Amino acid sequence: MALLRSIATVGGYTLISRFLGFARDILIAALLGAGPIADAFFVAFKLPNFFRRLFAEGAFNAAFVPLFSGRLASEGLASAQLFATSVLSVMVAFLYVFVTLLQIGMPFVMYGFAPGFTDDPEKFQLAVELTRITFPYLLFISLVSLLGGVLNSLGRFAAAAATPIILNIVLIAALLGATPFLPSAGHALAWGVSAAGAAQFVWLVVACHRAGMSLPLHWPRLTPGVRRVLRLMLPGAVGAGVVQINLLIDIVIASLLPTGAISYLYYADRVNQLPLGVVGIAIGTALLPLLSRQLREGSLDDARNSMNRGIEVALLLTVPAAAALLVIAEPIIKVLFERGEFSAATAAATAQALAAYAVGLPAYVLVKVLGPGYFAREDTITPVKIAIVCVAVNVILNLSLIHFLAHVGIALATAISAWLNAFLLASILHKRGHHGFDDRLWRRLVRILIASAVMAAVLWIVLAAMGSVFDDSVPTKIAALAALVVGGLCLYAVLAVATGAVVPSELKRMLSRKG
Question: Is the pTM of this model over 0.85?
Fold first, then answer.
């Protein structure tokens, strides 16, 4: 299957999920706004997701997928299945103990993750309660990550890519159906998170069975293959999760700011996650098993070409997205969230955070694309060293910028540290001779920058000409934003083709099964 076709499959399902996620967040914004219940739920949702992205999606995939893909290519399906079963059994046992211990010690955990909540005892207790409800999600979604890695290595990307859709459907149903029967909408969402994790797990168990890869549980044993995964995971927990570490630091420091700061950052990050999820996660997911297989086969030139094409697609889509978000951040937030408890002042504060996050959007995606260059070579140590530097820079910038920019400084610090992370990953790969930008990529990058700059300038002029249209009625605001977004997309497409940033015949060939 062609790389771009695999990216399109994962990205397409992710796009559906993100739109459902916006529907979910619109409901949350209308019912909770940016108040204490919203802050408490976002922390409760952030903690299991942090561990999921750090250990399951990040470190685990970085360690497991190359080893599983290698066994699949060299030893066949039966050996790969036995390896996956051994890893699954150990993972279930570990996660059960880990989740249980954190449930018991949740008040102490909350002191570390949201220290600012201690000034408001009711808010602190609510955060502890909601987090205890959501935390079983970590158990299910980590197992989902393993099953998804198996399916992706088999070239079956659709089922795993569709799992976030289940999450958003369940959360919307919980918000609408369970809120009247529970103390708050925050409780309904928390119960919905755990239920969604169980539903996603069942979905992928069925998908693996249909793919001929049933994974029955055995008594956990630390086989050599399992120990190899664990050794690779330990440093990868930091290296692959640097963005998540930075986002968690944002929450810790934001908890020290006045009520609402955590919510501003959450809503802004949700919008920023649309291109990050659709592009970055899709490319990283498709690229890792491909690179692992090419390196195992000794096809070094093919591996370099795959990496360059992945970077090219990433920049083609994220540079214009970042430019557009910088220009139309406030209209986007107003249309998506400004209703009910979500006021105009909240919209303005959230839009400022979104613009700051957007500065780092291409970097967030490049980190996802460059990471497989290390993980496919079973190198999880180097990203750790880079991560330590980037986390330190993020903390220093956070503590410096919040004095001048408040919550916006937190978002900007995250963006700057992401650029540093991407630069260091690319530089070390180049120094080792594992990767380098080819001539085609350099030419395309210049043209992408030109097309994006012209598109952003036109959007700025049009937005200025619209005047106060985004303070008008809801239908008017929706129509105006749709015109900006569709117009910007069409203009960029024309400019990309005109400048040569995109060659239609090449794009068609890359999307074909033999591309």
Answer: no
